[in-house]
Design a protein that fits this description.
By secondary structure, the protein is an alpha/beta fold. Helices cover 50% and strands 8% of the residues. The longest helix has 22 residues. The mean pLDDT is 97.
Length: 465
Amino acid sequence: MVSFIGNNFLLSNQTAQKLYHEYAADMPIYDYHCHIDPKEIFEDRRFSNITQLWLGGDHYKWRIMRSNGVPEEYITGSAPDREKFQKFAETLPKAIGNPMYHWCHLELKNYFGYEGILNGETAEEVWNLTEKKLADPSFSARNLIKKSNVAMIGTTDDPCSDLKYHDELAKIDFETKVCPSFRPDPALNIHKAGFAEYIKKLEKVVNTNITTIDDVADALSTRISFFDSKGCRAADHGLDYIMFNVLPKEELNNAFKKALSGEALTKEEIEGYQTYLLLHCAREYHKYDWVMQIHFSCVRNPNSKAMSVLGPDTGYDCIAATDSCAALYALMDALEKESNLPKTILYSLNPADNEWIDTLIGAFQGDNIPGKIQHGSAWWFNDHKTGMQDQMISLANLSILGNFVGMLTDSRSFLSYARHEYFRRILCNLLGTWVENGEYPADIEFLGSMVQDICSNNAKRYFNL
């Protein structure tokens, strides 16, 4: 029997083990998309206990606790931290097959030296061990990042942000590069609550009245220029689905006025407005040589009762079955015809989209940029063993796996870098299995360089780092 989370965890053959231990394990991490707060990095946040570090904003953990019938008081409520941790520890053993089970034990092992099994009976032992460790200054936010060998962090930032803490981080002795990423969703989501208020906020930041869609576009251009001056390398768009609906400017301005006054919009008006600004932003990203990331096929907050009590971003989102294929082809074709298509990473929350994404990227690649258009790492509900394997197998079947920019955490936790180890082990096992099966030559030196590219070097090159 193979030991749990042993040295060769997930590495089922000698080639996989050699690729991981000799080539992948020590490569620096380029975590180009996450939701860590740059303020917490600058202030070098400390955590009093494992609940603060683990459960404070982790939707994955909240979801499995709810699935185990844990009352909300012990999840997002006012129960004491020790009791919240106990409920989570009692839940975790039932999560066999869930990546959360592996991530938690990797984090306990890598950061706290705990090689036991977390459950209801061991919760007190783990609580005491981690509390003692967290009292040590070496467990501050920046030290955890350093310990994890992170070369770059890409935060997710509102266009109205002054990027104060990115400025402050640039002044201190901190080797990890922390780059802002431009997330203009509030300006594009004309149909969602708070849109009119956001436009007023944007007006104040750019010090200009915004009365037309071109005013919105100009304001976003101003902020893109500002972000670029602060070292931004990428933008990110979170869309329910991909749309492409080109409408006359007059109709777009009328829709914008209706939204500002609180009137309901038609689906055509919403899609027209979003299409216009998505195209505008993409042209700007191309000008600055940024990477455009697009996340789609997600249903946000379908549980209206939970939404009314807890608000958004509390762990109630789901995979959506959307038809984004034709619209994405049209969007990318429109930009390519203008020679304005930026480097682009596409992430669908629906794994059924893997194959058409992998054929699409082959239709829009660019000269002298290996992997200009990328199929992003298995995202969110897909970043488990099967999901990662399926994404990489599809990419290998239909494109070039060797140009893949690899893993990201998409997380708010300073311990989530263990997910990069998880990904690297799965990658090495996949390649090692193909070699052991005679499906690829046993050229370890070349395979090792490919592994290092996927784990690290490709992202460094792709994001101009």
